Amino acid sequence: MLVIGSHLSIAKGFTKAAETALEMGANTFQFFSRNPRGSNSKILDEDDIKQFQKIRIKNNFGPLSAHAPYTMNLASAKDEVYEFSNSVIKEDIQRMDSLSIEYLCMHPGSHIGCGIDTGIDKIISGLNQGMTKDQNITVLLETMSGKGTEIGFKFEHLKRILDGVHLNEKLGVCLDLCHVFSAGYDIVNNLDKVLENFDKIIGLNNLKTIHLNDSMMPFGANKDRHTTIGDGQIGMQAIINFMSHPSIKGKPFFLETPLELEGHKKEIQTLKNILGYI
After folding, report:
1. Low-confidence residues of the chain, pLDDT below 70?
2. pLDDT value for 37
3. How confident is the model at residue 35, as a pLDDT?
4. Closest CA to 85 of 39, 51, 140, 136
5. 3-class DSSP state of 135
6. Which residues are part of a known binding site for Zn(2+)?
7. Which of 10, 79, 105, 225 is buried deepest, with most CB atoms within 10 A?
8. Beta strands per DSSP E along 165-237
């Protein structure tokens, strides 16, 4: 089964988001766990949540993913930012877990000058404080493009975090196509080699979800510029090759392309057609 969806708003509730996903031909979706540019979290409506859960079960939804806010930075050297980030990850793990959301994806963080080693240590410390043995949700570290002082643009960064977190069986990786391509992993011409490298360093068993997008910028540019599927430097054929690779096939795909709902619906239909799911 192809598990595919896009990033959707939950501003009108989880039920509306789930209905929108179905209208798009999707069987999953991603959403922000709270205001992506702020700190506010949505008050949960019990009736909305009950209806949402019924829709998930009735329509055989695949795993869903929440995405932590961009304001969260567990690698920050600024005490106030780090304390805020610690509280956010802890709260969002608990809130999303209460909804039976399978994954919570997060950007590892940016060290903002304190250095990669210190930043990684701070991320590990924050996750060790925020994660609990009772949680069911899996926290995902997103692969990054390497812009600025980002951590996570090398597989080795993610491996070090995985190794340092006590409850790393509840930790995994979300691979973003645009980001890895821009970070210098040639998924166009050397996909097998990239996946072999990922498996050797991190382990493909730790790869849980895919952010599906194309790259506006050329290979190795270290720029985070998503574009629509097939319209960028990665290209449709390479994306199809990736999605149908034996190591990737069956994992949840979340579209993160600069389109409105109708555009995402067309992308899903196109991918299903090419992959033979229609």
Report:
1. 38, 278
2. 76
3. 83
4. 39
5. coil
6. 67, 107, 142, 176, 179, 211, 224, 226, 256
7. 105
8. 171-176, 207-212, 214-215, 226-227
